[in-house]
Design a protein that fits this description.
It contains twelve helices and 14 strands. It is of the alpha+beta class and 348 residues long.
Length: 348
């Protein structure tokens, strides 16, 4: 009997469309001899829909909309989802999916699922918490500071001045809980810093500021629970000011897989990726992003993505393909790891 894999996509976050593209790739590549994909689209209001149409065409679209998919689709409850699936495969990027919320739902249902657990998902999604934990672990990363809407209640100027005194320009300003470079700004002066903080508050009540590192952006895929495996290291070849939304999902930049880096740097990055993954309690799969500064030869942590993109432009599947692990095999291994963790937890 085939395993019924509930593939969940869409969601309430600003990464809604990206999630649909990732889901389409997994649905297209999953081994149909072993698995029966059961599709669930979550609209931007949080309602769940069972989708019966073929989604293979979605991967060719640059900005898919879920409305056409849910048009006429059956609304479902959590009880329906539970009865219709054996395994959950969330492909929900950003808040309400990558941040531990839906993972907690699966835990309450007793449903085995793909990817990181509740704590690791929440910590990796929250850039402030992740950096604080990595700092405690002594892992190298850029200088950073953070603020909140509460701290800026009397005005942004004072908080901007405090950040400016700690960090040198240029500075990246990001919502604490967001992905796909949504709400991110690179600023070079005080006025731009204040404007960037204000814009980031549209997406979160907490904002992180990071001192920009003049280095190469490298990324590595990690899969595993107790024992982990690493993909090859890929590099983002930027043709924009930074790796923004359009660059990631509309083909506006190039990926070098594998990255052309010295063996010593590769070994350092691999060790750092494992330490970062374990420090946040990672399991299942994730992607660890880093900077390689050719000036000092140092590798610095940037962030960890608990549900990295699976689109045709995404580093995660491409880096594993370069390791000799094809998309279909990668999906199968992720499912196996989800069952492994679920069984271990229930046998304690």
């Amino acid at each position: 009997m085939k395993t019924r894999v509930g593939i969940i996509f869409g969601g309430r976050s600003s990464e809604h469309e990206v999630s649909i593209m990732s889901a389409s790739a997994v649905i297209t590549k999953i081994d149909r001899a072993k698995y029966e994909p059961v599709l669930f689209a979550i609209d931007k209001r949080g309602a769940w829909h069972h989708i019966e149409s073929d989604m293979s065409c979605i991967a060719e679209l640059s900005d898919p909309r879920i409305a056409s998919l849910t048009d006429g689709a059956r609304r479902v409850t959590l009880a329906d989802f539970d009865a219709m699936t054996d395994f959950a495969f969330p492909l929900l990027h950003g808040p309400y999916g990558e941040d531990g919320t839906v993972q907690g739902l699966f835990e309450m249902l007793g449903k085995p699922y793909a990817g990181c657990g509740v704590a690791a998902s929440a910590l990796s999604m929250d850039k402030i918490f992740a950096k604080e934990i990595w700092a405690r672990a002594g892992l190298p990363q850029c200088e950073y500071s953070y603020t909140s809407r509460y701290a800026c209640a009397g005005g942004i100027a004072a908080e901007a001045a405090r950040i400016e005194n700690k960090l040198a320009y240029p500075i990246f300003v990001k919502p604490a809980n967001m992905g796909s470079s949504v709400g991110v700004s690179k600023v070079f002066d005080r006025d731009a810093l204040e404007a960037a903080i204000e814009m980031a508050f549209w997406y979160d009540n907490r904002v992180i500021a990071e001192q920009a590192i003049s280095g190469r952006e490298i990324e590595i895929g990690v899969i595993g629970n107790e024992e982990v495996r690493l993909s090859v290291i890929g590099e983002i070849l930027l043709d924009t000011v930074y790796y923004d939304y359009d660059s990631k999902y509309r083909g506006g930049t190039k990926l070098a897989v594998p990255a052309d880096i010295p063996d010593s740097v590769r070994e350092e990055a691999e060790e750092l990726a494992q330490k970062a993954y374990r420090a946040l309690g990672g399991n299942g799969f994730a992607r660890v992003d880093m900077f390689y500064d050719e000036g000092d030869g140092q590798v610095y942590l940037n962030e960890m993505n608990a549900i990295p993109g699976f689109t045709q432009y995404s580093m995660f599947p491409l880096a594993w393909q370069a390791r000799g692990v094809g998309f279909t095999e990668l999906v199968e291994r992720i499912i196996e790891l989800g069952y492994e963790r679920h069984n271990a937890a229930n046998n304690r």
